[in-house]
Amino acid sequence: MSQAPSLRRHHSTFSPFSTTPTSCREAQAHVSTETVDMPLMIEYDEFYVSDDGIARTFYELHATGSTKKPPFAIEERYDLKQAKKTFVLRKPAPDENSPHSSNEDQDAQPEVLSRNSLGAVDLGKVITSVHIQEIDQGVFGSAGTGATTWEASLAMALYFGTQRHQLSGNVVELGCGVGVGSILNILASTLDHRERSHVKSVTLTDGNDEVLQQCRSNVHQALAGVPPSTRPPISIKNLEWKEAFESQDRCSDILGGAKYKTVIACDCAYRHQAIKPLSETLASILQPEGTIHMFGPYNRSAFLETCRYLSRELNLDVTLEWVEINRYRLKPASEIEGSGWSEKDDGSFASQCAA
User: Which residues cross the membrane (predicted)?
Assistant: First the structure.
């Protein structure tokens, strides 16, 4: 396979923010004091949409110099007409000079990027895929921000793909929305049967009944083919941060008095008025020696204020780190001859020049 030409990428930086309930310590990061809310989207760039309303995006962890590639990358196929997304987990193609490469890996051909780019990217082999139904009207309807998927959930799944040991014990996700983040985590944990998962259970929570109804449907459909013996038990519950903050007894009743070793929140810290109830709820359900993982765009002021609150007001040990995600807007498959996609797609597409 010939080497793909150079190309431009969107570098989307997320921060997986971890806290542990030990002695009080200042966050080891420079935090902005600006209080203006950033937009929910990372960038206002355009989708490249096919005639039948399909937009494709490819996400991968930015290279860090390690010789070992992440176990998977994620392709998103967005059906804008049906508010439905297909997330395809792909085995990253090895570098041509990599000692880990094989003839089988070389079969996957480069895919053409959108008109905003200069070349091609090798998508790699399909591992598995999952369909996620969003809610019509999106953030403008009664379901609010939970109606759609957000890129922080994909960043989270990619991050934990390389940090499986950080997902352990009883796991809970706050603000799970339609469920894509935890679904991808569970699917990823079943990919390598040689590595035993340390997750005992997974609980998904959100404060909107309409969102939770769609989440239940997505979880049921996505994991229908996964034997229960190969994955942790899953529960879905209504937990609204403000109510949980105002009544710890109610929060305890909803969760059955459970405390969690791993607490996850993706793109939850974007409104300043929610910082206190979100932070207090995160801390209240965390077990001793447990860890909170928050993910969101690094330049969002409410996210950084939440870091401050957890550190200064709740005496949690805070660590900030940056995870860079390469995001590629892809040409629609329908515009590439012979590239009709199916569940058995092996990543072999014809190469064309970007428009």
Answer: none
Q: Taking the chain, what is the end-to-end CA distance rounded to the nearest angstrom?
A: 22
* Four-CA torsion 330, 65, 95, 158, nearest 10 degrees: -40
In CATH, 10-35+49-335 is 3.40.50.1110:
no
Listing DSSP states for 242-296 in one string gives HHHHH-HHHHHHHTTT--EEEEEEES----GGGHHHHHHHHHHTEEEEEEEEEEE
In the block, residue with structure tokens 């929060």 = 251
- Residue (of 213, 210, 155) closest to 184 by Cα position: 155
CA distance 281 to 353: 51
Domain boundaries, the chain: 10-35+49-335
> Does pTM surpass 0.90?
no
Backbone angles phi, psi at 64, to 5 degrees: -115, 5
CA distance 199 to 135: 29
Do the beta carbons of residue 174 and residue 215 sit within 8 Å? no
- Tens-binned pLDDT, residue by residue, of the chain (355 aa): 333 322 334 445 566 666 544 322 222 222 222 333 333 334 445 778 888 889 999 999 986 655 467 899 999 999 999 999 999 999 987 765 443 444 444 445 556 655 555 567 788 999 999 999 999 988 889 999 999 999 999 999 999 999 999 999 999 999 999 999 999 999 999 987 767 789 999 999 999 999 999 999 999 999 998 999 899 999 999 999 888 888 888 888 889 999 999 999 999 998 999 999 999 999 999 999 999 999 998 888 999 999 999 999 999 999 988 888 888 888 765 443 333 444 444 443 322 323 3
